[in-house]
């Protein structure tokens, strides 16, 4: 393969001059000093949806002194994520801020470092390895089910979103480090909450936020990061000590990452790399999956006839209280429901990249340095690719309908909850298994009823959460 420096020198300026003659993408009208920044802060989903509805698939928006571009066409997503990926870096403001917390883990690193870490981590996520996590996932779901049954017997209300966050945090702790961090869960959960909240605040602030300022909020964030660092560093130190004593390695993700060696160099990860990867997986793995579960439960609670059919499917095909892995493939309706839920409410509702050189997307000039945003929320509701896109219709993901869409030429990137290309989510199979096991364990146990007069609206932060939680009434299933 030619290296970048091997490109003939004359070719670059010619190509750049040609691109600069292209038109800029249509812009959403913006007035005042801040441009669309307030709308971006108050209702980003509304803004991105309106931008694409009114101005097409490639749209520019001014936020204060910065022009960003947003794209909603699956072919353009493929351009950025696959065919021209070398030209688009993860150097957005959001990812730069995430680095404060995640260091150089898989989500935030790039280039040779990322490639090496991904190569080392990949085997830890193969099907055989993640199948060993089914028992933890099942046991944690069963405990949540018992709690729900007690609440149902008393006809109580619960915040289902908070419950899903607890469930996935417990699963993350057990599968990552074989520890029930329930003991530390209050501390870990609270610290994660502070960091996530701070992250939301600094990425939506009108001007870059200096994290070094000794404000109360910054001190709180730094304290929370220190708490999480201590938990993770202690766990790594204990594991190193156990290894030194010759005690058997644990069959968890940390064990797999510690045992992994770079195929080319034979090197293992050092403590800093392990810390960054473990922190990354703790964050990337639990909040996303919790939101996928919460949105699915919300949609099923508002579509009782579909919920009934899913429960019937589970009861007909799952013998015990918790499904065996071999039984999951007998639950196609549940699988369709999960896909349709991630279509309507993608937990990672937007991703971003920075153009590292001039480029063309859809006939428009994308100038070097432009932030290019890809809102999955809008992609997944694009009327060219989805009939009645706002409707919850799990049968869109039946084998026949998927084949039909393919025949009609709908691009495979029209549905992309885990992203695509080489930076695709490493935990997609893990998350799919976890959500299926949890739902198949929880759903037959209780009836979930939404609270009358309390609309559920998305809160697009780092992930897409239900605003203010998801309170529901629990009752025994009749
Ligand atoms: C429903 C649950 C999940 C969703 C919707 C989701 C979604 C995503 C998306 C969209 C990306 C790409 C971000 C980008 O390119 O900018 C990503 C990356 C990533 N996810 Fe997930 N994720 C989920 C669960 C998990 C789990 C369970 C883990 C780990 C246990 C995980 C670990 C990661 C990592 C490490 C990356 C970075 C991969 C790389 O760049 O090499 N995710 N995820």
Give the key terms.
binds protoporphyrin IX containing FE, 5-stranded mixed sheet, 12 strands, 53% helix, 3-stranded antiparallel sheet, globular, disordered N terminus, 19 helices, Cytochrome p450, 478 residues, alpha+beta
What is the fold's blueprint, element by element?
Elements: H1 11-20, H2 37-42, H3 44-55, E1 58-63, E2 66-71, H4 74-83, E3 88-89, H5 93-102, H6 111-121, H7 127-131, H8 134-153, E4 157-159, H9 160-177, H10 182-204, H11 216-244, H12 253-259, H13 271-302, H14 304-317, H15 325-328, H16 332-344, E5 350-355, E6 359-361, E7 364-366, E8 371-375, H17 376-379, H18 399-407, H19 428-442, E9 446-450, E10 458-460, E11 464-466, E12 471-476
Parallel strand pairs: 2-8
Antiparallel strand pairs: 1-2, 3-5, 4-12, 5-8, 6-7, 9-12, 10-11
Helix pairs in contact: 5-10, 8-9, 8-19, 9-13, 10-11, 11-13, 13-16, 13-19
The structure holds protoporphyrin IX containing FE.
Describe the structure.
- The structure is a single chain.
- This protein has about 475 residues and is of the alpha+beta class.
- The protein has a single domain (about 5-475), classed as Cytochrome p450 (Orthogonal Bundle).
- It is built from 19 helices and 12 strands.
- The strands form 4 sheets. Strands 1-2-8-5-3 form a 5-stranded mixed β-sheet, with helices on both faces.
- A hairpin with a 2-residue loop joins strand 6 (about 360) and strand 7 (about 365).
- Helix 11 (about 215-245) crosses helix 13 and helix 13 crosses helix 16 (about 330-345).
- The radius of gyration is 23 Å and the shape is globular.
- It starts with 10 loop residues before the first helix and ends with a strand.
- The structure holds protoporphyrin IX containing FE.
- Protoporphyrin IX containing FE binds next to helix 13 and helix 19.
- Protoporphyrin IX containing FE binds near residues 351, 419, 427 and 431.
């Amino acid at each position: 393969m030619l290296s970048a420096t091997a490109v003939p020198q004359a070719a670059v300026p010619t190509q750049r001059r040609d691109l600069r003659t292209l038109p800029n993408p249509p812009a959403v009208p913006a007035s005042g000093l801040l441009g669309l920044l307030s709308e971006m802060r108050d209702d980003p989903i509304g803004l991105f949806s309106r931008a694409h509805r009114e101005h097409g698939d490639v749209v520019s928006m001014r936020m204060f002194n910065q022009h960003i571009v947003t794209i909603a066409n699956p072919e353009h997503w493929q351009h950025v994520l696959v065919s021209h990926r070398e030209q688009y870096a993860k150097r957005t403001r959001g990812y730069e801020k995430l680095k404060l917390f995640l260091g150089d883990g898989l989500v935030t690193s790039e280039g040779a470092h990322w490639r090496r870490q991904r190569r080392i981590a990949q085997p830890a996520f193969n099907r055989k390895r993640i199948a060993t996590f089914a028992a933890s996932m099942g046991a944690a779901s069963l405990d949540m089910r018992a709690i729900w049954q007690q609440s149902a017997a008393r006809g109580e209300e619960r915040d289902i979103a908070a419950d899903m966050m607890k469930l996935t945090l417990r699963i993350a702790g057990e599968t990552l480090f074989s520890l029930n961090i329930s003991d530390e869960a209050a501390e870990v959960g609270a610290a994660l909450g502070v960091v996530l909240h701070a992250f939301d605040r600094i990425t939506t602030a009108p001007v870059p936020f200096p994290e070094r300022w000794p404000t109360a909020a910054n001190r709180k964030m730094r304290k929370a990061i220190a708490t999480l660092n201590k938990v993770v560093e202690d766990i790594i130190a204990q594991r190193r000590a156990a290894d030194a004593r010759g005690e058997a390695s644990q069959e968890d993700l940390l064990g797999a990452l510690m045992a992994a060696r770079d195929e080319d160099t034979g090197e293992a990860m050092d403590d800093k790399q392990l810390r960054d990867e473990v922190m990354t997986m703790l964050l990337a793995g639990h909040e996303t999956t919790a939101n996928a579960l919460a949105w699915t439960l919300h949609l099923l609670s508002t579509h009782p006839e579909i919920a009934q059919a899913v429960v019937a499917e589970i009861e007909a095909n799952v013998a015990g209280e918790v499904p065996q892995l071999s039984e999951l493939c007998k639950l196609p309706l549940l699988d369709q429901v999960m896909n349709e839920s991630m279509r309507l409410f993608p937990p990672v509702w937007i991703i971003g990249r920075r153009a590292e050189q001039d480029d063309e997307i859809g006939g428009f000039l994308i100038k070097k340095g432009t932030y290019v945003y890809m809102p999955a929320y809008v992609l997944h509701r694009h009327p060219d690719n989805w009939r009645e896109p706002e409707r919850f219709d799990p049968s869109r993901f039946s084998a026949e309908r998927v084949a039909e869409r393919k025949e009609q030429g709908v691009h495979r990137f029209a549905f992309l909850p885990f992203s695509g290309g080489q930076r695709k989510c490493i935990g997609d199979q893990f998350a799919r298994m976890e959500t299926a096991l949890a739902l198949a364990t929880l759903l037959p146990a209780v009836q979930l009823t939404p609270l009358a007069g309390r609309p559920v609206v998305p809160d697009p932060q780092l992930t897409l959460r239900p605003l203010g939680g998801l309170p529901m009434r629990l009752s025994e299933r009749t």
